[in-house]
Amino acid sequence: VPVSVALRDGIAPDGGLYVPTSFPTPTVTGSTLPEVASTLLAPFFADDPLESELPSLCAEAFDFPVPVRPLFEGVELLELFHGPTAAFKDFGARFLAACFARIVKDPLTIVVATSGDTGGAVAAAFHGRPNVDVVVLYPKGGVSARQEKQLCAFGGNVRAFAVRGVFDDCQRLAKEALRAWGSTSSANSINVGRLLPQMAYYALATHARGPTTVVVPTGNLGNATAALWAKRCGLPIERVVLATNANRPIPDFLATGRYDPRATVRTLANAMDVGAPSNLERVRHLYGDDLSRIRVDVRAESVDDAEIRATIARVHARTGVAICPHTACGVAAWERLGGGPALIAATAHPAKFETVVEPLIGAPVEVPPALAALLARDGRATEIEPTLAALDRAVGR
Ligand SMILES: *Cc1c(COP(=O)(O)O)cnc(C)c1O
Question: What is the per-residue pLDDT for 168?
Fold first, then answer.
């Protein structure tokens, strides 16, 4: 199907996930994210109604910087948190919103399950857009106070629901609503329109380099899938290291070949609290479900809360740089594998997790202006049981 249909639908009619049918190897040029994104994504949008819009889409969606910050010993942070909601989810959400603004002509409800950051990014990207309603589902008590403020800050066409359960309940509920309600779409990373634009920052950071190891703090495997797709498009990404928190299905799958989804464990890196990562099937598909081929390109390490804390403190003591708990998983995983030159995705601003980070570094973390503006707003979520019936009632269906 054309890419605009895949991203409009969110999920394939048979319930599966859309993937590119082939991976072109375009010559990536440019020094800004919109330029790089346009050249990288052009083949995916060839003959699509959005083809001619791609440069303007990218310019609209990617209007904030993506700096690379040297940390130590060749380790660099790819800072993905300079968008409006201070996490990397802004890239995919803003790209999707820019696409939808051009292709959606009839009223549509976007249902999004969030472990903390997706919901805020989607809410910010779609707030006030005509024809689109957003329903955000987040685990009550499972997100940071500042994440929750972001989720509830919008109102209008964006409604937030605190689900009495964990992220996997929210994900299941979102899938049930997508199936049961008409005229819906998903803004989770099951939507291919989230993953394609995420390839662009890996392209920007690596296209002019030699072979580079990329370390990706991983939950639902969306960001890492984007890195692997970027590699398949010919970018010099040598290896992708998946850093998970104490939720272990991915490292265990790589170690044993058995995929064993399980109940989510709550951790300090809450946006990665995923027990049943939906994009694993995309990674398996990419490698023809051949574990030995996956192992050539991919490593995975699990990092527990004690190590997250120790890493935040150690990195700050050594460099003066405050990192968020997710980024800390990336640094800790990479150090465990021996360290050395690598690009580590810094997925959220530490100010979103100040109650964790500030006591560990013994200093306040400055709040970026866009985040401060959101935190100044007021709002409230409706609490619901983790059932479709409860959600139906709450949204008035
Ligand atoms: C969503 C998120 C992750 C995990 O990304 P996936 O694409 O779900 O693997 C990591 N860090 C932060 C800060 C996030 O918001």
Answer: 87
